[in-house]
Specification:
FAD/NAD(P)-binding domain; 22 strands; 7-stranded mixed sheet; binds flavin-adenine dinucleotide; 451 residues; binds nicotinamide-adenine-dinucleotide; alpha/beta; Enolase-like, domain 1; 5-stranded parallel sheet
Protein backbone atom coordinates (compact mmCIF):
# COMPACT_ATOMS: atom_id res chain seq x y z
CA UNK A 1 0.00 0.00 0.00
CA UNK A 2 1.25 3.46 -0.90
CA UNK A 3 -0.52 6.81 -0.61
CA UNK A 4 0.18 7.79 -4.21
CA UNK A 5 1.11 5.62 -7.17
CA UNK A 6 2.45 7.32 -10.29
CA UNK A 7 2.58 5.29 -13.51
CA UNK A 8 5.28 6.62 -15.85
CA UNK A 9 8.22 8.94 -15.27
CA UNK A 10 6.92 11.95 -17.18
CA UNK A 11 7.68 15.59 -16.45
CA UNK A 12 4.56 16.12 -14.37
CA UNK A 13 4.81 12.83 -12.51
CA UNK A 14 8.44 13.14 -11.48
CA UNK A 15 7.86 16.67 -10.22
CA UNK A 16 4.75 15.67 -8.30
CA UNK A 17 6.49 12.60 -6.80
CA UNK A 18 9.08 14.81 -5.08
CA UNK A 19 6.52 17.40 -3.96
CA UNK A 20 4.07 14.89 -2.49
CA UNK A 21 6.81 12.89 -0.72
CA UNK A 22 8.26 16.06 0.81
CA UNK A 23 4.72 16.83 2.03
CA UNK A 24 4.69 13.51 3.91
CA UNK A 25 2.90 11.19 1.44
CA UNK A 26 4.34 7.81 0.53
CA UNK A 27 4.82 7.80 -3.24
CA UNK A 28 5.60 4.88 -5.57
CA UNK A 29 6.69 5.65 -9.12
CA UNK A 30 6.67 2.85 -11.72
CA UNK A 31 8.71 3.23 -14.92
CA UNK A 32 8.82 0.54 -17.59
CA UNK A 33 12.26 1.32 -19.02
CA UNK A 34 15.56 2.21 -17.36
CA UNK A 35 16.41 4.07 -20.57
CA UNK A 36 13.49 6.39 -19.83
CA UNK A 37 14.21 7.48 -16.25
CA UNK A 38 13.27 11.15 -16.36
CA UNK A 39 10.75 10.62 -19.18
CA UNK A 40 10.60 11.31 -22.90
CA UNK A 41 11.71 14.95 -22.80
CA UNK A 42 15.24 14.37 -21.57
CA UNK A 43 15.78 10.96 -23.21
CA UNK A 44 14.22 10.96 -26.67
CA UNK A 45 12.41 14.22 -27.26
CA UNK A 46 13.00 17.90 -26.41
CA UNK A 47 16.55 17.84 -25.06
CA UNK A 48 18.31 15.37 -27.38
CA UNK A 49 16.69 16.91 -30.44
CA UNK A 50 17.69 20.43 -29.41
CA UNK A 51 21.29 19.27 -28.91
CA UNK A 52 21.21 17.94 -32.46
CA UNK A 53 19.51 21.10 -33.75
CA UNK A 54 22.18 23.20 -32.10
CA UNK A 55 25.08 21.17 -33.44
CA UNK A 56 23.58 21.05 -36.93
CA UNK A 57 23.96 24.84 -37.08
CA UNK A 58 27.57 25.04 -35.92
CA UNK A 59 29.41 26.09 -39.09
CA UNK A 60 30.99 23.03 -40.68
CA UNK A 61 30.73 23.86 -44.36
CA UNK A 62 27.64 23.11 -46.37
CA UNK A 63 28.74 19.72 -47.63
CA UNK A 64 27.57 16.41 -46.33
CA UNK A 65 29.90 15.30 -43.52
CA UNK A 66 28.78 12.23 -41.57
CA UNK A 67 31.44 12.77 -38.89
CA UNK A 68 29.85 16.05 -37.77
CA UNK A 69 26.55 14.28 -37.23
CA UNK A 70 28.26 11.34 -35.47
CA UNK A 71 30.00 13.74 -33.07
CA UNK A 72 26.69 15.48 -32.36
CA UNK A 73 25.03 12.12 -31.63
CA UNK A 74 27.85 11.31 -29.19
CA UNK A 75 27.33 14.62 -27.42
CA UNK A 76 23.58 13.97 -27.36
CA UNK A 77 24.12 10.53 -25.81
CA UNK A 78 26.57 11.78 -23.19
CA UNK A 79 24.36 14.65 -22.10
CA UNK A 80 21.14 12.63 -21.98
CA UNK A 81 22.86 9.83 -20.00
CA UNK A 82 24.02 12.39 -17.43
CA UNK A 83 20.53 13.90 -17.19
CA UNK A 84 18.98 10.45 -16.84
CA UNK A 85 21.29 9.60 -13.93
CA UNK A 86 20.63 12.96 -12.30
CA UNK A 87 16.87 12.51 -12.67
CA UNK A 88 17.10 9.09 -11.02
CA UNK A 89 19.11 10.48 -8.10
CA UNK A 90 16.77 13.42 -7.66
CA UNK A 91 13.95 11.03 -6.69
CA UNK A 92 15.94 8.13 -5.28
CA UNK A 93 17.32 10.41 -2.56
CA UNK A 94 13.89 11.65 -1.42
CA UNK A 95 12.53 9.91 1.68
CA UNK A 96 9.08 8.59 0.95
CA UNK A 97 9.67 7.87 -2.74
CA UNK A 98 9.90 4.24 -3.92
CA UNK A 99 11.06 3.69 -7.49
CA UNK A 100 10.03 0.49 -9.26
CA UNK A 101 11.26 -0.78 -12.63
CA UNK A 102 8.26 -2.39 -14.27
CA UNK A 103 5.23 -2.09 -16.51
CA UNK A 104 1.95 -1.27 -14.81
CA UNK A 105 -1.61 -2.19 -15.69
CA UNK A 106 -4.80 -1.68 -13.71
CA UNK A 107 -6.53 -4.44 -11.77
CA UNK A 108 -9.16 -2.06 -10.41
CA UNK A 109 -9.38 1.66 -9.64
CA UNK A 110 -7.07 1.41 -6.63
CA UNK A 111 -4.85 -1.54 -7.59
CA UNK A 112 -2.20 -1.92 -10.22
CA UNK A 113 -0.23 -5.00 -11.24
CA UNK A 114 3.38 -4.30 -12.12
CA UNK A 115 5.34 -6.73 -14.30
CA UNK A 116 8.96 -6.59 -13.10
CA UNK A 117 12.07 -8.61 -13.88
CA UNK A 118 11.33 -10.59 -10.70
CA UNK A 119 7.71 -11.30 -11.57
CA UNK A 120 4.39 -9.57 -11.06
CA UNK A 121 3.61 -7.52 -7.97
CA UNK A 122 0.41 -5.74 -6.94
CA UNK A 123 0.35 -2.24 -5.52
CA UNK A 124 -2.67 -0.53 -4.00
CA UNK A 125 -3.00 3.22 -3.58
CA UNK A 126 -5.58 5.79 -2.59
CA UNK A 127 -4.44 8.02 -5.43
CA UNK A 128 -3.20 6.83 -8.82
CA UNK A 129 -1.74 9.21 -11.38
CA UNK A 130 -1.38 8.09 -14.99
CA UNK A 131 1.62 9.82 -16.64
CA UNK A 132 2.49 7.36 -19.40
CA UNK A 133 2.99 9.88 -22.21
CA UNK A 134 2.63 9.23 -25.93
CA UNK A 135 4.60 7.40 -28.63
CA UNK A 136 4.80 7.80 -32.41
CA UNK A 137 1.59 6.71 -34.11
CA UNK A 138 2.44 3.79 -36.40
CA UNK A 139 1.67 4.45 -40.07
CA UNK A 140 -0.36 1.58 -41.49
CA UNK A 141 1.26 1.52 -44.94
CA UNK A 142 3.16 -1.22 -46.82
CA UNK A 143 6.85 -1.16 -45.90
CA UNK A 144 6.42 1.34 -43.04
CA UNK A 145 8.25 -1.12 -40.77
CA UNK A 146 11.23 -1.34 -43.14
CA UNK A 147 14.85 -0.99 -41.98
CA UNK A 148 15.35 2.49 -43.44
CA UNK A 149 12.03 3.87 -42.14
CA UNK A 150 12.39 5.65 -38.80
CA UNK A 151 10.37 7.39 -36.16
CA UNK A 152 11.55 10.46 -34.21
CA UNK A 153 13.43 8.24 -31.76
CA UNK A 154 15.34 5.89 -34.07
CA UNK A 155 16.28 8.66 -36.54
CA UNK A 156 18.39 10.27 -33.81
CA UNK A 157 20.79 7.33 -34.15
CA UNK A 158 20.58 6.79 -37.90
CA UNK A 159 23.97 5.62 -39.12
CA UNK A 160 25.45 6.96 -41.31
CA UNK A 161 23.93 10.41 -41.77
CA UNK A 162 21.53 9.93 -44.72
CA UNK A 163 22.57 11.76 -47.88
CA UNK A 164 18.87 11.91 -48.81
CA UNK A 165 16.23 12.06 -46.08
CA UNK A 166 12.52 11.94 -46.83
CA UNK A 167 10.21 13.23 -44.07
CA UNK A 168 6.53 12.28 -44.03
CA UNK A 169 4.52 14.89 -42.08
CA UNK A 170 4.93 18.63 -41.64
CA UNK A 171 4.14 19.09 -37.94
CA UNK A 172 6.74 20.26 -35.42
CA UNK A 173 8.63 16.97 -35.51
CA UNK A 174 8.78 16.81 -39.31
CA UNK A 175 9.92 20.44 -39.62
CA UNK A 176 12.47 20.33 -36.78
CA UNK A 177 14.17 17.22 -38.16
CA UNK A 178 14.00 18.53 -41.75
CA UNK A 179 15.74 21.76 -40.73
CA UNK A 180 18.26 19.89 -38.54
CA UNK A 181 19.26 17.26 -41.13
CA UNK A 182 19.56 19.96 -43.79
CA UNK A 183 21.92 21.72 -41.37
CA UNK A 184 24.03 18.56 -41.16
CA UNK A 185 24.22 18.51 -44.95
CA UNK A 186 21.53 15.98 -45.89
CA UNK A 187 19.36 16.68 -48.87
CA UNK A 188 15.88 16.73 -47.33
CA UNK A 189 12.42 16.37 -48.85
CA UNK A 190 9.22 16.84 -46.81
CA UNK A 191 5.95 15.32 -47.95
CA UNK A 192 3.09 17.49 -46.72
CA UNK A 193 -0.54 16.46 -47.15
CA UNK A 194 -1.58 20.10 -47.14
CA UNK A 195 -1.53 22.84 -49.85
CA UNK A 196 1.20 24.64 -47.91
CA UNK A 197 3.11 24.50 -44.64
CA UNK A 198 1.33 25.75 -41.50
CA UNK A 199 -1.99 24.98 -43.18
CA UNK A 200 -4.03 26.60 -40.41
CA UNK A 201 -1.68 29.54 -39.91
CA UNK A 202 -1.02 32.82 -41.75
CA UNK A 203 -0.09 32.38 -45.41
CA UNK A 204 2.65 35.03 -45.33
CA UNK A 205 4.36 33.30 -42.38
CA UNK A 206 4.06 29.93 -44.16
CA UNK A 207 5.69 31.45 -47.25
CA UNK A 208 8.60 32.90 -45.27
CA UNK A 209 9.07 29.53 -43.50
CA UNK A 210 9.02 27.72 -46.85
CA UNK A 211 11.61 30.14 -48.25
CA UNK A 212 13.89 29.71 -45.22
CA UNK A 213 13.68 25.90 -45.36
CA UNK A 214 14.17 25.87 -49.12
CA UNK A 215 17.27 28.06 -48.77
CA UNK A 216 18.57 25.59 -46.18
CA UNK A 217 18.23 22.66 -48.60
CA UNK A 218 14.74 21.34 -47.84
CA UNK A 219 12.30 20.60 -50.64
CA UNK A 220 8.64 20.84 -49.58
CA UNK A 221 6.33 18.65 -51.64
CA UNK A 222 2.74 19.74 -50.94
CA UNK A 223 -0.51 17.83 -51.47
CA UNK A 224 1.47 14.61 -51.13
CA UNK A 225 0.32 11.45 -49.39
CA UNK A 226 2.81 8.63 -48.81
CA UNK A 227 1.40 5.30 -49.94
CA UNK A 228 4.20 2.72 -49.63
CA UNK A 229 7.89 2.22 -48.80
CA UNK A 230 9.98 -0.33 -50.69
CA UNK A 231 13.41 -1.22 -49.40
CA UNK A 232 15.77 -2.16 -52.24
CA UNK A 233 18.60 -3.30 -49.96
CA UNK A 234 20.58 -0.11 -50.56
CA UNK A 235 17.91 2.61 -50.40
CA UNK A 236 14.19 3.06 -49.87
CA UNK A 237 11.72 4.04 -52.56
CA UNK A 238 8.77 6.06 -51.33
CA UNK A 239 5.61 5.90 -53.39
CA UNK A 240 3.42 8.96 -52.96
CA UNK A 241 0.18 10.20 -54.43
CA UNK A 242 0.31 13.82 -55.51
CA UNK A 243 -2.69 15.45 -57.17
CA UNK A 244 -4.06 12.10 -58.36
CA UNK A 245 -0.71 11.00 -59.79
CA UNK A 246 1.76 8.53 -58.38
CA UNK A 247 5.38 9.58 -57.91
CA UNK A 248 8.37 7.76 -56.52
CA UNK A 249 11.19 9.26 -54.44
CA UNK A 250 14.44 7.52 -53.59
CA UNK A 251 15.93 8.15 -50.15
CA UNK A 252 18.57 6.74 -47.83
CA UNK A 253 16.28 7.14 -44.85
CA UNK A 254 12.66 8.04 -44.15
CA UNK A 255 11.30 9.78 -41.05
CA UNK A 256 7.66 9.23 -40.18
CA UNK A 257 6.47 12.31 -38.30
CA UNK A 258 2.73 11.92 -38.45
CA UNK A 259 1.74 12.41 -34.84
CA UNK A 260 1.99 10.72 -31.44
CA UNK A 261 -0.69 8.67 -29.69
CA UNK A 262 -1.35 8.38 -25.94
CA UNK A 263 0.16 5.31 -24.25
CA UNK A 264 -2.97 3.66 -22.90
CA UNK A 265 -3.37 0.43 -24.85
CA UNK A 266 -1.58 -1.76 -22.30
CA UNK A 267 -2.96 -0.15 -19.12
CA UNK A 268 -6.25 -2.09 -19.00
CA UNK A 269 -8.05 1.13 -18.13
CA UNK A 270 -11.44 -0.56 -18.48
CA UNK A 271 -10.64 -2.62 -15.37
CA UNK A 272 -10.37 0.63 -13.41
CA UNK A 273 -13.41 2.28 -15.03
CA UNK A 274 -11.20 4.95 -16.62
CA UNK A 275 -12.78 6.25 -19.85
CA UNK A 276 -10.73 6.90 -22.98
CA UNK A 277 -11.75 8.81 -26.10
CA UNK A 278 -11.71 7.47 -29.67
CA UNK A 279 -7.97 8.29 -29.95
CA UNK A 280 -7.18 6.27 -26.83
CA UNK A 281 -6.55 9.39 -24.70
CA UNK A 282 -7.62 9.30 -21.06
CA UNK A 283 -10.67 11.51 -20.61
CA UNK A 284 -10.13 14.08 -17.84
CA UNK A 285 -12.07 17.01 -16.44
CA UNK A 286 -10.79 20.53 -15.84
CA UNK A 287 -8.84 19.35 -12.78
CA UNK A 288 -7.40 16.24 -14.48
CA UNK A 289 -9.74 13.81 -12.72
CA UNK A 290 -10.62 10.70 -14.75
CA UNK A 291 -13.98 8.88 -14.65
CA UNK A 292 -12.62 6.68 -11.81
CA UNK A 293 -12.53 8.34 -8.36
CA UNK A 294 -8.95 8.74 -7.11
CA UNK A 295 -7.42 8.24 -10.57
CA UNK A 296 -5.91 11.23 -12.42
CA UNK A 297 -4.04 11.68 -15.71
CA UNK A 298 -1.34 14.23 -16.55
CA UNK A 299 0.81 14.99 -19.59
CA UNK A 300 0.44 13.72 -23.15
CA UNK A 301 -1.68 10.72 -22.10
CA UNK A 302 -4.84 12.81 -21.70
CA UNK A 303 -4.77 13.99 -25.29
CA UNK A 304 -4.23 17.74 -24.86
CA UNK A 305 -1.45 19.70 -26.56
CA UNK A 306 1.81 17.76 -26.21
CA UNK A 307 4.43 19.93 -24.53
CA UNK A 308 6.70 19.25 -21.57
CA UNK A 309 5.77 22.53 -19.94
CA UNK A 310 2.08 21.58 -20.03
CA UNK A 311 2.84 18.27 -18.30
CA UNK A 312 4.67 20.43 -15.74
CA UNK A 313 1.64 22.68 -15.43
CA UNK A 314 -0.62 19.62 -15.04
CA UNK A 315 1.57 18.78 -12.03
CA UNK A 316 0.72 22.19 -10.54
CA UNK A 317 -3.01 21.51 -10.93
CA UNK A 318 -2.70 18.16 -9.15
CA UNK A 319 -0.45 19.58 -6.45
CA UNK A 320 -3.16 22.15 -5.78
CA UNK A 321 -5.88 19.48 -5.84
CA UNK A 322 -4.06 17.02 -3.56
CA UNK A 323 -2.30 19.43 -1.18
CA UNK A 324 -3.99 22.80 -1.62
CA UNK A 325 -7.34 24.45 -2.21
CA UNK A 326 -8.12 22.67 -5.47
CA UNK A 327 -8.80 25.93 -7.30
CA UNK A 328 -6.39 25.55 -10.18
CA UNK A 329 -7.83 24.38 -13.51
CA UNK A 330 -6.68 23.55 -17.04
CA UNK A 331 -9.02 26.26 -18.35
CA UNK A 332 -7.15 28.89 -16.31
CA UNK A 333 -4.34 28.72 -18.84
CA UNK A 334 -4.06 31.72 -21.12
CA UNK A 335 -1.44 32.68 -23.66
CA UNK A 336 0.38 29.34 -23.81
CA UNK A 337 3.37 29.87 -26.11
CA UNK A 338 4.85 27.28 -28.47
CA UNK A 339 8.10 27.05 -30.41
CA UNK A 340 9.02 24.86 -33.35
CA UNK A 341 12.80 24.60 -33.37
CA UNK A 342 13.54 25.11 -37.04
CA UNK A 343 16.37 27.57 -37.66
CA UNK A 344 15.61 30.30 -36.79
CA UNK A 345 12.95 29.07 -34.35
CA UNK A 346 9.28 29.77 -35.04
CA UNK A 347 7.43 30.80 -31.87
CA UNK A 348 3.76 31.58 -31.49
CA UNK A 349 1.36 32.69 -28.80
CA UNK A 350 -2.32 33.62 -28.84
CA UNK A 351 -4.18 34.40 -32.04
CA UNK A 352 -2.67 34.55 -35.50
CA UNK A 353 -3.89 37.25 -37.88
CA UNK A 354 -5.98 34.63 -39.69
CA UNK A 355 -7.63 33.46 -36.48
CA UNK A 356 -8.33 37.02 -35.32
CA UNK A 357 -9.92 37.99 -38.65
CA UNK A 358 -11.95 34.75 -38.76
CA UNK A 359 -13.39 35.79 -35.40
CA UNK A 360 -14.34 39.17 -36.83
CA UNK A 361 -12.11 41.06 -34.39
CA UNK A 362 -11.09 44.65 -35.11
CA UNK A 363 -7.31 44.33 -35.08
CA UNK A 364 -4.13 46.14 -35.99
CA UNK A 365 -1.43 43.82 -37.29
CA UNK A 366 2.18 44.89 -36.98
CA UNK A 367 4.10 42.80 -39.51
CA UNK A 368 7.74 43.18 -40.51
CA UNK A 369 10.41 41.06 -42.09
CA UNK A 370 13.21 40.66 -39.57
CA UNK A 371 15.90 41.96 -41.93
CA UNK A 372 13.86 45.17 -42.40
CA UNK A 373 13.82 46.19 -38.72
CA UNK A 374 16.61 48.78 -38.61
CA UNK A 375 16.65 48.93 -34.82
CA UNK A 376 17.20 45.18 -34.45
CA UNK A 377 20.87 44.35 -35.01
CA UNK A 378 20.97 41.11 -32.99
CA UNK A 379 19.83 38.76 -35.86
CA UNK A 380 22.48 40.32 -38.12
CA UNK A 381 25.13 39.98 -35.40
CA UNK A 382 24.48 36.24 -35.10
CA UNK A 383 24.36 36.04 -38.87
CA UNK A 384 20.75 34.99 -39.29
CA UNK A 385 18.45 37.91 -40.19
CA UNK A 386 15.81 35.59 -41.70
CA UNK A 387 12.19 35.54 -40.67
CA UNK A 388 9.11 37.60 -39.99
CA UNK A 389 7.51 39.17 -36.91
CA UNK A 390 3.75 39.62 -36.62
CA UNK A 391 1.93 41.02 -33.61
CA UNK A 392 -1.87 41.09 -33.53
CA UNK A 393 -3.30 43.92 -31.42
CA UNK A 394 -6.89 44.78 -30.47
CA UNK A 395 -7.60 48.06 -32.28
CA UNK A 396 -9.39 49.78 -29.40
CA UNK A 397 -7.87 48.39 -26.19
CA UNK A 398 -4.38 47.94 -27.68
CA UNK A 399 -4.13 44.63 -25.84
CA UNK A 400 -1.90 42.09 -27.53
CA UNK A 401 -4.01 39.22 -28.89
CA UNK A 402 -1.20 37.15 -30.34
CA UNK A 403 2.22 37.07 -31.91
CA UNK A 404 4.22 35.04 -34.39
CA UNK A 405 7.94 35.46 -33.96
CA UNK A 406 9.99 33.70 -36.61
CA UNK A 407 13.49 34.88 -35.77
CA UNK A 408 16.59 34.09 -33.74
CA UNK A 409 15.92 33.83 -29.99
CA UNK A 410 12.15 33.66 -30.53
CA UNK A 411 11.90 30.72 -28.10
CA UNK A 412 12.88 33.24 -25.39
CA UNK A 413 11.15 36.39 -26.61
CA UNK A 414 7.76 34.69 -27.01
CA UNK A 415 7.67 34.21 -23.24
CA UNK A 416 7.85 37.99 -22.85
CA UNK A 417 4.84 38.45 -25.13
CA UNK A 418 2.94 35.70 -23.28
CA UNK A 419 3.64 37.44 -19.97
CA UNK A 420 2.46 40.77 -21.41
CA UNK A 421 -0.76 39.11 -22.62
CA UNK A 422 -1.41 37.44 -19.26
CA UNK A 423 -0.88 40.65 -17.32
CA UNK A 424 -2.60 43.10 -19.64
CA UNK A 425 0.53 44.96 -20.74
CA UNK A 426 -0.54 46.78 -23.91
CA UNK A 427 1.28 47.05 -27.23
CA UNK A 428 2.18 50.75 -26.66
CA UNK A 429 3.58 49.86 -23.23
CA UNK A 430 5.71 47.12 -24.75
CA UNK A 431 6.76 49.47 -27.56
CA UNK A 432 8.09 52.03 -25.10
CA UNK A 433 9.75 49.57 -22.72
CA UNK A 434 13.46 49.64 -21.95
CA UNK A 435 15.20 46.56 -23.33
CA UNK A 436 18.85 45.58 -23.25
CA UNK A 437 20.82 46.25 -26.40
CA UNK A 438 21.66 44.50 -28.61
CA UNK A 439 18.94 41.95 -27.86
CA UNK A 440 16.08 40.35 -29.75
CA UNK A 441 13.49 41.67 -27.26
CA UNK A 442 14.15 45.20 -28.47
CA UNK A 443 12.26 44.27 -31.63
CA UNK A 444 9.14 45.62 -29.93
CA UNK A 445 10.56 49.17 -29.81
CA UNK A 446 10.50 49.11 -33.60
CA UNK A 447 7.74 46.69 -34.60
CA UNK A 448 5.11 48.16 -32.28
CA UNK A 449 6.08 51.82 -32.65
CA UNK A 450 3.10 54.03 -33.44
CA UNK A 451 0.42 51.49 -32.52
C1 LIG B 1 11.10 14.51 -31.05
C2 LIG B 1 10.30 15.29 -30.05
C3 LIG B 1 10.66 16.57 -29.71
C4 LIG B 1 9.93 17.28 -28.77
N1 LIG B 1 10.34 18.55 -28.48
C5 LIG B 1 9.67 19.24 -27.54
C6 LIG B 1 10.13 20.51 -27.15
O1 LIG B 1 11.12 21.03 -27.68
N2 LIG B 1 9.46 21.17 -26.19
C7 LIG B 1 8.35 20.62 -25.58
O2 LIG B 1 7.80 21.25 -24.68
N3 LIG B 1 7.89 19.42 -25.95
C8 LIG B 1 8.53 18.70 -26.91
N4 LIG B 1 8.09 17.46 -27.24
C9 LIG B 1 6.90 16.91 -26.54
C10 LIG B 1 7.32 16.41 -25.14
O3 LIG B 1 8.39 15.51 -25.28
C11 LIG B 1 6.16 15.72 -24.44
O4 LIG B 1 5.03 16.56 -24.44
C12 LIG B 1 6.52 15.38 -23.00
O5 LIG B 1 7.70 14.64 -22.93
C13 LIG B 1 5.37 14.60 -22.38
O6 LIG B 1 5.70 14.21 -21.08
P1 LIG B 1 4.71 13.35 -20.22
O7 LIG B 1 4.74 13.91 -18.85
O8 LIG B 1 3.39 13.19 -20.85
O9 LIG B 1 5.33 11.89 -20.16
P2 LIG B 1 6.61 11.20 -20.81
O10 LIG B 1 7.83 12.02 -20.61
O11 LIG B 1 6.25 10.77 -22.17
O12 LIG B 1 6.81 9.94 -19.86
C14 LIG B 1 5.97 8.83 -19.88
C15 LIG B 1 6.74 7.67 -19.27
O13 LIG B 1 5.83 6.62 -18.97
C16 LIG B 1 6.49 5.39 -19.20
N5 LIG B 1 5.41 4.37 -19.35
C17 LIG B 1 4.52 4.25 -20.36
N6 LIG B 1 3.67 3.24 -20.11
C18 LIG B 1 4.02 2.71 -18.92
C19 LIG B 1 3.51 1.65 -18.13
N7 LIG B 1 2.42 0.94 -18.48
N8 LIG B 1 4.13 1.37 -16.96
C20 LIG B 1 5.21 2.09 -16.55
N9 LIG B 1 5.74 3.09 -17.27
C21 LIG B 1 5.14 3.42 -18.43
C22 LIG B 1 7.32 5.65 -20.44
O14 LIG B 1 8.39 4.74 -20.56
C23 LIG B 1 7.79 7.09 -20.20
O15 LIG B 1 9.04 7.14 -19.55
C24 LIG B 1 8.79 16.71 -28.16
C25 LIG B 1 8.41 15.41 -28.50
C26 LIG B 1 9.16 14.71 -29.42
C27 LIG B 1 8.74 13.30 -29.76
N1 LIG C 1 9.17 22.12 -30.16
C1 LIG C 1 8.15 21.50 -29.62
O1 LIG C 1 7.50 21.98 -28.69
C2 LIG C 1 7.79 20.14 -30.14
C3 LIG C 1 8.65 19.47 -30.98
C4 LIG C 1 8.30 18.24 -31.46
C5 LIG C 1 7.10 17.68 -31.09
N2 LIG C 1 6.28 18.33 -30.26
C6 LIG C 1 4.97 17.76 -29.91
O2 LIG C 1 4.89 16.42 -30.35
C7 LIG C 1 3.63 16.18 -30.94
C8 LIG C 1 3.76 15.31 -32.15
O3 LIG C 1 4.41 16.02 -33.22
P1 LIG C 1 4.21 15.59 -34.73
O4 LIG C 1 4.86 16.60 -35.58
O5 LIG C 1 4.54 14.15 -34.92
O6 LIG C 1 2.64 15.57 -34.87
P2 LIG C 1 1.56 16.61 -35.38
O7 LIG C 1 0.27 15.91 -35.17
O8 LIG C 1 1.73 17.94 -34.83
O9 LIG C 1 1.84 16.73 -36.94
C9 LIG C 1 1.75 15.62 -37.76
C10 LIG C 1 1.69 16.06 -39.20
O10 LIG C 1 1.67 14.88 -39.99
C11 LIG C 1 0.63 14.98 -40.93
N3 LIG C 1 0.13 13.62 -41.16
C12 LIG C 1 -0.60 12.87 -40.31
N4 LIG C 1 -0.85 11.66 -40.88
C13 LIG C 1 -0.24 11.67 -42.09
C14 LIG C 1 -0.12 10.74 -43.14
N5 LIG C 1 -0.71 9.54 -43.07
N6 LIG C 1 0.60 11.10 -44.22
C15 LIG C 1 1.18 12.33 -44.30
N7 LIG C 1 1.10 13.25 -43.33
C16 LIG C 1 0.39 12.92 -42.26
C17 LIG C 1 -0.41 15.88 -40.32
O11 LIG C 1 -1.14 16.51 -41.33
C18 LIG C 1 0.44 16.85 -39.52
O12 LIG C 1 0.79 17.96 -40.29
C19 LIG C 1 3.01 17.53 -31.25
O13 LIG C 1 1.75 17.59 -30.65
C20 LIG C 1 3.93 18.55 -30.66
O14 LIG C 1 3.24 19.40 -29.77
C21 LIG C 1 6.58 19.57 -29.77
Amino acid sequence: MTDVLIIGWGKGGKTLAGTLARAGRSVTLVEQSSAMYGGACINVACIPTKILVHDSQVPHGTDYDATVFAAAVDRRDTLTAAMRAKNYDMLDTVDGVTLIDGTARFVDASTVEVATADGATRISAETIIINTGATPTPLDLPGADGPRVHDSESIQHVDPLPKRLLVVGDGPIGLEFASMFAGFGSSVRVLSRHDRLLARDDEDVAQVLTDVLTDAGVEIVTGAAARAFTDTGTEVTVTAEIGGETREFAADAVLLATGRSPNTADLDLAAAGVDVDDRGAVVVDDRLRTSAPGVYAIGDVHGGPQFTYLSLDDNRILEDLLLGAGDRRVSDRVAVPTTTFVTPPLARVGLSETQARERGLDVIVASTMVRDIPTLPRPKIVNNPAGIIKVVVDASSKQILGATLFCVDSQEVVNLVALAMRHGITAPELASSIFTHPSTSEMFNGVLAGI
